[in-house]
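Researcher: Before we compare anything, I want clean individual predictions. No alignment, no superposition, just each chain on its own. First chain goes here; please echo the sequence and then give the structure tokens.
Model: Echoing the first chain and its structure:
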Amino acid sequence: MVVSKVTEVITHESPIEETCPIVNAIREIGGEWKLIVIRYLADGPQGFNDLMKTIPDVNSKTLAATLKYLEEKSIISRVVESTRPFRVKYSLTEKGTSLGGALSDLKKWGEQWIGKTKPVKSAKALPHS
């Protein structure tokens, strides 16, 4: 039946993609907002509202979903501070911090090939290699 053949093609993954670390890494942290959140958390722990103010053009629903995904993947941690009112802080885990070299390489690539198109709202610089 034609429908099952189409379904098989859609669900079949290439063995090359399954074993390629680059493809797997992009699947894990790819997408516009994931890397941007990781980039700003590289500056240090931040609360939800801090991230909303810092990250240009993100809406609260997208940010919440991105933070939840990154926490599920153990790239960031979520800590509820016992203050009144309570405050939630997000920070990079060891897994997330280990992306520092990749972020630095992306920064160099962006400076060379794209340039500075938007001002960055961070006072801290990305890690140097």
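Researcher: Okay. Second chain, same rules.
Model: Second chain and its structure:
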Amino acid sequence: MADDDVSVAFGDLDVALAHWHIDAWGGAEYLVTKLAESLDIGTVYTTGEPSPDDTNPYGDVIFHDVIGDLSLPSLRRLQSKAGRVFEYALWEDIDWREYGGPDVLITSGSTTRAVITPDSTLHANYCHSTPRWFYDLYHDRKGSPVGILARPLVRYLRMRDMTVDPRVDYYFANSPIIARRLRKYYNRDAEVLYPPVSLERYHNEGNDGYYLHLGRLDEEKGVPNIVRAFDGTEHCLVLAGGEGDIDEGCHSTIERAPNIDYRGFVSEAEKYDLLAHCQAVVFNGHNEDFGIVPIEANASGKPCLARDDGFPGVYIEDGKNGYRHDGRPAGIKTAVERFESEGLAGDPGAEVERFSTDGFEEQIKQSIIRQYERFRETTMVADYND
């Protein structure tokens, strides 16, 4: 624990890290693992856990399920399966004094913001996004029968979400897009802290002539439109990622098309190899908060054909590190044709250094020190005035 001297070094601080829930390994878990490694934290507190045989593929960080530490754990675990309906309450019930009463608690995700920390603990939140179905995507499904029936619950959860916001002392956002949403929906400022990329692991081994898509076969990843864009063309498409929620028609097209190769979930080593040998990466996630795949493509010296919204739409510049498209099959085809005919004017990896692991580690440590000093300064003034 740090003492009352406002000037502190990072090593003087007891820092803890909590991640809202985990049932599979994805981008958020990658980020939290790297965040823990950067802060020399070996354990991340979370709710839920993957299969015991499914170890963390991103590092040696351990995820500790806090539900087992609560009273009536069987009931709490049942509640956790209902998602956000009970998640805010589950995090509220965690007594952080049982975990040492840290000087700084960094929470990852939306529902962890509900934690009630000791008054001497700085609570910083790493925001991957504001809850999208409460805010920017609210109108996308409200016309469906399920959407209409769910609206009263969504309105309640939106109020619940707003209620816990003042418990956060400081926000980090994973991109300028998320910083904008935090300002729009919570009227809160945020420091942009890009997720770290281990740039040294990526390399360019030439061009084996195929286009690559990385990620689950999900509707929200725009996979059906990518498949439609490549179906019947002379361009080879490799899909690498876990089974998602695409319909049977899309699955049938993938199985039938001779130029489309689905590899399933691949290891990190296989991913790096696919990136190293592809011609370009195709990315079609809708309004992505950050989207690490375009950066991975550029770090491998390959262009990315990315949808023109969210952070990828800001990051990708036509003809420089890739091409943008509108997400529809025709738009994706046009981006492929432009890349094939025009190529790139420069090195697609010229701007990736800003996402380095070293830069991430330095920024997060300096920011924590700065914010903790301000927090302690405010606390000491309040104590003095009392």
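Researcher: What stands out in the second chain?
Model: Residues 20 and 39 are 18 Å apart (CA to CA). Additionally, The first helix runs from residue 27 to 38.
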